[in-house]
Design brief:
Elements (H helix, E strand, L loop, with lengths): L2 H34 L3 H28 L4 H10 L2 H13 L17
Helix pairs in contact: 1-4, 3-4
Length: 113
């Protein structure tokens, strides 16, 4: 397991616990009712997250197609639990990723562009 996988796993664990707590206390629908009823600033943040997760899902779609990987479980998790899907996809991607010797175009998943 790489350092990046460990970091992603820690983030996933913390975020997963927060999701579990919210679902246990409010339920799935209740969580959304609380978020959407919290006022314009909260709605703006939710809209921003929707845009960001849409962009991430588009990248995952392209990346999975290029790699021949199965994507649907990660898309479903993203649609239901937000960042859980991309975090799991990145952990899985890192475990199957073969970086080119030159470090070229298809370098590390989290490498800055």
């Amino acid at each position: 397991m790489t350092k990046i996988q460990i970091l992603l796993g820690v983030v996933l664990a913390v975020f997963g616990l927060e999701n579990a707590w919210a679902l246990a206390h409010y339920g799935f629908i209740g969580t959304w009712e609380n978020l959407l009823g919290a006022g314009f600033p909260t709605q703006l943040v939710i809209f921003d997250l929707l845009i960001a997760l849409s962009l991430v899902m588009a990248w995952m779609w392209s990346d999975a197609r290029e790699r021949g990987a199965r994507l649907w479980p990660y898309l479903v998790l993203t649609l239901v639990f937000g960042s859980v899907g991309p975090l799991l996809y990145l952990i899985r991607r890192e475990s199957t990723h073969k970086a080119p010797a030159s470090g070229g175009e298809h370098g590390h998943a989290l490498q800055s562009a």
